[in-house]
Amino acid sequence: MFLLRLRTLLCLYSLAVGSIQTSESFWKLKPNVLVVDVDVKGVNRVEVPVICGEAYEGHNITWTKNKDKHLEAQGNRITVTVEGWKGANYSCFDNEGSYLNHTLVLAQWSFRKIIRNTPEKGYIHCATNNYGGLFQCSWSWGENRHGHITHIEAIRPDGGSNISCSLDPEGKSITCLDQDYCPYAEELERINLTVYFRSSFVVESYNAKFYIMNIVKPDMVAISRINHTCVEVGYPDSWNTPSSYFPLIFQVKEIRCRKRKKCDCSQLSSIETYHTQSLQLPVSKGKMVCVRAKDEFCNSSWSEWSQYKCKKNRKQRKPKLKML
Ligand SMILES: *[C@@H]1O[C@H](CO)[C@@H](O)[C@H](O)[C@H]1NC(C)=O
Ligand SMILES: *[C@@H]1O[C@H](CO)[C@@H](O)[C@H](O)[C@H]1NC(C)=O
Ligand SMILES: *[C@@H]1O[C@H](CO)[C@@H](O)[C@H](O)[C@H]1NC(C)=O
Ligand SMILES: *[C@@H]1O[C@H](CO)[C@@H](O)[C@H](O)[C@H]1NC(C)=O
Ligand SMILES: *[C@@H]1O[C@H](CO)[C@@H](O)[C@H](O)[C@H]1NC(C)=O
Ligand SMILES: *[C@@H]1O[C@H](CO)[C@@H](O)[C@H](O)[C@H]1NC(C)=O
Ligand SMILES: *[C@@H]1O[C@H](CO)[C@@H](O)[C@H](O)[C@H]1NC(C)=O
């Protein structure tokens, strides 16, 4: 009982709205990548100092822009100009023409073109199917732009977290793991996720802040038959155990399906729905029962609907006699 009460307390937080960060002039996004903010009104020319490498001080260094264009400026330190959104990739070479290093200069603007806003999910949508510390974030690509992820930052502001993210094979989502996440402890601070998308030499950053407990959406429940008046609901395999500490609540409705017509649990039905914690549910013959699940204590999402159609009672098949 104490544990249950603790769980309710842990869930009293709610989702925060995402925000967008800006900073001034230029800054280092990661090794070899500088970002120039061109959002600032009236700023359409920014001078950026670029260095080939500490080790090359005093050497004869030559530079190219985007591989093919040779720059007049020479030496270890040069200044390049970003006009409008025209970032570039600057490479430096020694006096024998051997490649030494490069700096990618990107322009960050405030437009939102690389990925798309969607009515229900916003720009970046994060979800997880349990309290394990693993979560997935997805987005929709904008039109007419070839975008990809150039950098991901995920931290909790207190710093006491170790969150690593990687791009999924399909390239349409990322999966992150909070190594220090503990489902039994209070989640004090939100995860601050910033994803940098690049298209050509432009970068856009998107930010989301959330508690894991608010992005939980259980997988679909399993429904199995007990007898012709009763079915049993099973917790998703991916859900945390013990289920007494992580109880789910079920939403149940029965719908009548016309023959040969596709039955869809998400369709609005006038028939009443009810909530229950019971794993055994009564069903009516010929109707379809729809069940979805949600964490009982947290204000998080419902799972997708699971459906089960009670078949009319069939005669039991007679066991075949083996011929001797
Ligand atoms: C290459 O350039 C980056 C800056 O873009 C610099 O931080 C790094 O130290 C350089 N690498 C070497 C080997 O000098
Ligand atoms: C740099 O180039 C100049 C002329 O091109 C040459 O006189 C000088 O010796 C070179 N210095 C080094 C360190 O190679
Ligand atoms: C920038 O140039 C370097 C050196 O040619 C290359 O290794 C790197 O992939 C380039 N980066 C981009 C984003 O074009
Ligand atoms: C979230 O992360 C971004 C990018 O690292 C940073 O600019 C911003 O200040 C962070 N917000 C909080 C509340 O820590
Ligand atoms: C983060 O977790 C990984 C995997 O457990 C570990 O290798 C790494 O050292 C951790 N980093 C920090 C800063 O704790
Ligand atoms: C069907 O199973 C439920 C649960 O085990 C039981 O309560 C009920 O009596 C059974 N009904 C029939 C007709 O066997
Ligand atoms: C639960 O979350 C939804 C959507 O995030 C919100 O509209 C609703 O007000 C929240 N309810 C409570 C009790 O916090």
Automatic annotation (TrEMBL):
Keywords: Cytokine, Disulfide bond, Glycoprotein, Immunoglobulin domain, Secreted, Signal. GO terms for molecular function: cytokine activity; cytokine receptor activity; interleukin-12 alpha subunit binding; interleukin-12 receptor binding. It is found in: Secreted. Residues 121-198 form the Interleukin-12 beta central domain. Residues 1-18 form the signal peptide. It comes from the Eukaryota. Pfam families: IL12p40_C. GO terms for biological process: interleukin-12-mediated signaling pathway. GO terms for cellular component: interleukin-12 complex. PANTHER family: INTERLEUKIN-12 SUBUNIT BETA (PTHR48485:SF4), INTERLEUKIN-12 SUBUNIT BETA-RELATED (PTHR48485). Heterodimer with IL12A; disulfide-linked. The heterodimer is known as interleukin IL-12. Belongs to the IL-12B family. This is Interleukin-12 subunit beta. It comes from Danio rerio (Zebrafish).
